[in-house]
Amino acid sequence: MNTKTLFRIFLTSGFILWILSWIGDSKGILPSSTYGMFFSAILTGFGIYFWLKSYKEKRGYYPKFLKIYGNLHKEMKKNPFNGIFFMVRHLLKFYTLMLVFSMVLVFIGFITIGKSEPVKTVQNYCENNSEINKITGKINHYGILRNVNSKWSSETGTSELSLVFVSDNGVFNVSSKLEKENGEWKVKKLELKDKNTGANTVYN
Question: Is the pTM of this model over 0.70?
Fold first, then answer.
C-alpha cells in the first residue's frame, strides 16, 4: 500500500472518529468517546506523517506552507472566491487543517478551562453531595467538553458552566451557577438532568 493511500485512510479515519467522539461526548457515551478522541489524534498524526512522506516522494521536498499561504493570499485579493476554489481542490488537506485546529482547541480547553477552579468546585460538589449521590450513584467519568463562562478576580467572581458525566445510575447533564466570595468558589445553583429519563433536579 503506497503512502498516498495510507495518508488518506488515516486522515479520513481520524476525521470520522473525531466527529463521532465529539457527538458521543455530548451524548454521554463515556468513557468510549474520550478514548475515541485520543485515538483519533493518533490516527491523524499518522495521516499527517504519511502525507508529508507522500508529498516529498512526489515533489522531492516538503510543503512550503508560508509560500502556499502567500500565493493563496494574493489570489484571494484578486478574487475572494479563489479561497473556496482552493479549498475544493485540496479538500482532504483543508479538513485535516480544521481537524488539527479543533483538536488543539479541545486540548487547550481541557488543560485550562476544564481544570479550572469553577469546574473542580462543581465536580467536588456533585461527588460529595449525599442527595445527588442518591440519584446518580458513584460518578465514574466526566466528559472532556465543558461549557464555561466565567469572570473573576483573586477575591470575587461569577461562573456559569455545564458538563456531562456518567455514573452507576446513568448519564447526567449538569448546569450550574457559582460565585466567588473571599477567594472561595461556592455553588449557588445546580441543575441535574438525567439524560435517560429527562428528570430535572435543582439544588440551591
Answer: yes
